[in-house]
Design a protein that fits this description.
- This protein has 17 helices and 17 strands.
- The chain has about 500 residues and is of the alpha/beta class.
- The strands form 2 sheets. It has a 10-stranded mixed sheet with strand order 8-17-16-15-14-13-12-9-10-11, sandwiched between helices. Strands 3-2-1-4-5-6-7 form a 7-stranded parallel sheet.
Length: about 500
């Protein structure tokens, strides 16, 4: 799914209106119908709603939704805030369809009289916003954010810019619990800068012109479940362990053998045909006792990997729990200079690359690096804001012709062609030690099984998050551990099988 900027979204609306011979007011009605259907599926008629509408197009969506919910028998109240001197034409048309006695002026005082059980529908300001909200409306938003009521924003939380929000104040942005976004998410939803203002967001199809969306250029994409499932390759009747690939996992050091265990178990649970683990001698007995399905490669290092690599594997996952000792540094120097295998690089391997940036120049093309933000900062330097971070991410992948999986909420998967995909799966419970080691194992297994690096990165990231989402249905996110994510993989692969 493409992620478009504000101007592209406006053009998509315009072309839909022009080429489908549909009026803008009817496109607004289409959007309101989609919102109504979402609400009716989730709330019974005992739930009352309080509409907060500005006098622009976003407010027009709100007015149309207000009318539709009233017709459905929901108790609704409507408050209006005047934006500038003139109303948008479509807003005025929708306003004329409503009994004027039902429309009340929106003030701080009126907000404070609302029952805490009512849900606010935020339709004050939409994607057309180009400067931070100030004055009376900012005061109203501040008051709204302090109330205990639930908040449902239409298309975008009022006050949030649709892309980057570096110079935008949180005080002038509505804090939504849910956001109903039309056709596609906005880039701002996926960035830590102000993305928390969105709450949970949902994509509502309002049938914008497919021809325009298919042809418009953007570097940003959203990794949906549908896209992820289209990448999955089901097992064939005559497959065997050889045809399902052989992965070597290079991981572990004294005190960090658990990282190797987690990564290895994730690889095995992701269907790799054969798994070998190269770990120092302190970890051999542990892995023999806990991973009977894995083979162990010999290394002379006792507490950390040392010496020369000297092995021949087509697919490598390297980094979890390695440590950064001088012996490990020398071993990695040998590995990167010797190996031309496809590889997934994580954790301490990334930290050592950051200390020896010349190694980046010898990495095989389309190697997959999986840093968290601090590891990425060590690789590329600091950034001032989210826009600069994404620019650095694009430059990094293009300069070195690698794939970079920048982990976090809505993990960003950047490719050498300059495109970035943001993940749709996952939850805050994944912010736990070992979660990244699990991802390294999953992606490595997919690479070994024959997925392209692009496919392995996209599918691996989605599956990793989806496994955690399945687990938090029965486990509290606060107490999720990395092993739980591995335990959720089986259910994810079963979902994939059903749609293959």
């Amino acid at each position: 799914m493409k992620i478009l900027n504000k101007l592209q979204i406006q053009e998509a609306d315009r072309q839909t209106i022009t080429k489908e011979s549909i009026s803008s007011i009817n496109l607004m009605e289409r959007a309101a119908m989609a919102c109504m259907n979402w609400i009716v599926e989730r709330y019974d008629h005992n739930q009352s709603f309080v509409f907060l509408c500005g006098t622009g197009n976003n407010g027009g969506d709100g007015l149309a939704l207000f009318r539709l919910l009233i017709e459905k028998g929901y108790p609704c109240t409507l408050y209006e805030f005047q934006l500038g001197k003139n109303q948008q034409t479509d807003y005025t048309q929708n306003r004329n369809r409503i009994n004027k006695n039902l429309i009340h002026p929106l003030t701080v005082e009126s907000l404070n009289q609302i029952s805490p059980k009512d849900i606010f529908i935020d339709a004050l300001v939409g994607t057309g916003l180009n400067r931070a909200i100030t004055g009376k409306l900012k005061h109203i938003i501040q008051t709204l954010n302090q109330l205990p009521n639930g908040v449902l924003s239409i298309d975008i939380p009022s006050g949030l810019f649709s892309e980057f929000n570096t110079n935008n104040s949180c005080e002038g942005i509505v804090q939504a619990d849910h956001t109903l976004s039309f056709q596609m998410p906005k880039l701002a939803f996926l960035l830590p800068e102000k993305g928390g203002k969105v709450g949970s967001f949902y994509i509502l199809d309002i049938e914008l012109l497919p021809g325009f969306i298919n042809n418009v250029k953007t570097p940003y994409f959203y990794l949906t479940p549908k896209k992820a499932k289209s990448l999955y390759q089901a097992l064939k009747k005559f497959d065997h362990k050889g045809s399902n690939g052989h992965l070597i996992l290079i991981a572990g050091s004294k005190g960090k053998i658990g990282a190797a265990q987690l990564s290895a178990k994730a690889a095995l649970r992701s269907g790799v045909g054969k798994l070998s683990v190269l770990t120092p001698q302190c970890g051999v007995e542990i892995l023999h006792n806990t991973l009977p399905e894995a083979m162990i490669e010999h290394n002379t290092g006792i507490e950390c990997l040392s010496g020369y690599y000297g092995l021949k594997y087509n697919t490598v996952s390297i980094g979890p729990g390695l440590g950064t000792s001088n012996k490990t540094k020398d071993f990695l120097n040998s590995f990167f200079n010797e190996s031309t295998s496809q590889m997934v690089i994580d954790a301490d391997a990334l930290n050592l690359i950051a200390a020896h940036p010349e190694w980046m120049n010898i990495l095989p093309k389309k190697s997959i690096l999986t840093p968290h933000p601090k590891e990425f900062e060590r690789l590329v330097g600091t950034w001032k804001n989210e826009e600069e971070k994404l620019q650095r991410l694009i430059h990094f992948t293009q300069e070195h012709q690698i794939i970079c999986v920048l982990k976090g909420a809505h993990t960003a998967i950047a490719f050498p062609d300059g495109n970035i995909w943001f993940n749709s799966s996952g939850n805050p419970g994944m912010a736990t030690a070992g979660s990244g080691d699990v991802l390294t194992g999953i992606i490595g297994a997919l690479l070994a099984k024959g997925y392209t690096p692009e496919q392995a990165a996209l599918l691996g990231v989605y599956v990793h998050g989806r496994a955690a989402d399945i687990q938090v249905k029965s486990l509290a996110p606060t107490f999720l551990i990395a092993s739980d994510i591995i335990n959720g993989l089986n259910d994810v692969w079963k979902e994939m099988e059903k749609t293959a």
